Amino acid sequence: MKKLMGILMLGLGLVFASSYAHARQGILQIKGSDTLINLVQRLAEVYMEENPGSYIAVTGGGSGTGIAAIMNKKCDTANASRLMKPKEVAQATERGIDVGRVVIAMDGLSVITNPNNLIDRLSVAQLGSIFRGDITNWSEVGGLNRAITLYGMLYTHSHTPPLFQE
Predict the structure, then answer these.
(1) In a domain, 105, yes or no
(2) Which residue of 29, 98, 124, 160 could cross-link 22, Cys pair, CB 3.0 to 4.6 Å?
(3) Which positions fall inside the PBP domain (predicted)?
(4) Could you report the per-residue pLDDT of 142-158, keeping only the tens digit for each?
């Protein structure tokens, strides 16, 4: 655990090294991925404990929100739980923003169905079809004639639905 924390702190430190806008005001602003917010908040707390006088503000909003904030110089570091889109990379280049990437964690995704559902497995292709809306009934994947209802982060800035859609 200590080694993992050291690696994560190193990664966070490397990300911090690229900060400029708010750091001069004494507060490092980190914005972005809701997937990473708890981890980054804890890392920030540990960093501030070990470095008295340092101030780090961590907020979420989603990967896209964090990337937009860094593009508009509204934060020092953007957390993203996805790669930047080609359009975002092009914007950064146009604006002279040198973005780097430091992997600080890997996450996993899971799909949960009602225990009464007869389906016990779905392929990645079937999940993509469900999240795209091509498959809308459980009978299309071997289940009962019932509508599929999706719950979760479907209408937020989450990167999860597009991952399944692709």
Answers:
(1) no
(2) 29
(3) 24-150
(4) 999 999 988 766 555 56
